[in-house]
């Protein structure tokens, strides 16, 4: 017995060591690309093209930030991204929460609940490229191309089903008794939702909102097709526009690309508890 | 289920309030259903309509009805076949790699560093970044002349490559970038799944002297099956619509080696100005996606 234990202990030690090593490698591989774009955003052009590469910027400069955000309209793009993301999130979370609650709590005739749930989920599966042509023709018809409202409408199509499903699973997890008690005490059904269920669901709301924000902030394809003017284009499109066939403005796009990542990463660390829970809840429970 | 509006202590309520209360189950659902109907049913119907027409780039010209002409083109369009094959290769290879790496990493972290949720968040960073920023980052890394990957190759004494610009490595380069961004997603889902495993079966297995390999195979994997199913489903759906990475990294080249379906549809619709044919292709993609996901969800009994 004793020999077995010592042998397994050395084995365990070795295992532990290689596990730490593997995790360390994963961390380096995860972080290096992010570091690299940040590092390059602070280098002069000549240092970006240096061979061998400059691992740490020797002459750090804010030149590219000035180019991107002062001389070029990246601030405008970022503001557009922000407004569109907020608009989409507010609409999706508001209606998604109500629908999610209804699907979690009410009964419907003719198996409606199952059918509607499934249908809502299935709309999320639609690849964006599929709806892009009709949406484009639609916005063109109503003269809405190059507007932020068009983007909000398009993004809502993808975020609303997601919000509905997240909130549905969240409400299903809450005990129904508290709402019942409120109704017995004379509150209306709507009142019970508003005063009892909604406050309890705040972490779920937070998680859902975070995901809607991230998805809208990152979206590329729809924005590429729907917007062509500086007044309406979002940050991802602004960045892509600086990768041209003839030259790529590395410093400038590094600066803008890094700035597009920063709010998301800060955000993620601030809300990491909700993020993990939200993701596992939303995805694991379908 | 709750009874609506029949509580004993209903107090003075106006008729509007009573009506609202009685129909609340429909009122709460209505906005979402209406919005989604407008944003999905309308485009789908419109797309069917577009798919059977030849649409001129000139908006003043009427659409010309061509019946199944656009669909017939799919069968004989070699570019479409290439796009189909590229999408299949990308989806299979990328999702497999992401799954293996994500699961492995989750098992390691779950077993050896349980408490460090900070580490978890760090490892999750790639999946939250805008795909466009990811694409730019990897473009910079792959750059043949001054890119850092070739520097590493050089330091290791390996031959430098053109990566995203090389006919044989372009798809591989796209896959690596995608794996970098999305392995964290699988990792996170697996971690959540592992955290919810029951303890008792493992205690019993340990008493029986089952090896950790056996425990993984007989207990962990079966328990994780629903989570694995969801994770794979979501990743496959996303892989089928890959766009941003190819758009920036290769533009579909070199020699169409990375031309995937969404990129080809985009090119047909906007560069070759042929939305009718693009709509037919979109319908094809939609059809494949629906068949795949419905089959998968039915099989896994996910939509309940």
Describe this structure in a few short sentences.
Chain A is mostly helical. Chain A has helices spanning 2-41, 45-48, 63-71, 74-105, 112-124, 128-141, 148-173, 177-184, 189-200, 202-218, 221-226, 235-240, 250-270, 272-284. Chain A contains 14 helices and no strands.
List the helices and strands and how they pair.
The complex is a heterodimer of chains A (286) and B (304).
Chain A: H1 2-41, H2 45-48, H3 63-71, H4 74-105, H5 112-124, H6 128-141, H7 148-173, H8 177-184, H9 189-200, H10 202-218, H11 221-226, H12 235-240, H13 250-270, H14 272-284
Helix pairs in contact in A: 1-13, 3-13, 4-7, 4-10, 5-7, 7-10, 7-14, 8-9, 10-14
Chain B: H1 15-22, H2 24-51, E1 53-54, E2 64-65, H3 69-76, H4 78-112, H5 117-128, H6 131-142, H7 148-155, H8 170-195, H9 200-207, H10 212-240, H11 244-249, H12 261-271, H13 275-300
Helix pairs in contact in B: 2-13, 3-13, 4-8, 4-10, 5-8, 8-10, 10-13, 12-13
Attribute tags:
heterodimer, A: 286 residues, mainly alpha, MetI-like fold, 2 domains, 14 helices, 77% helix, B: 304 residues, two-stranded antiparallel sheet, 13 helices, globular, disordered N terminus
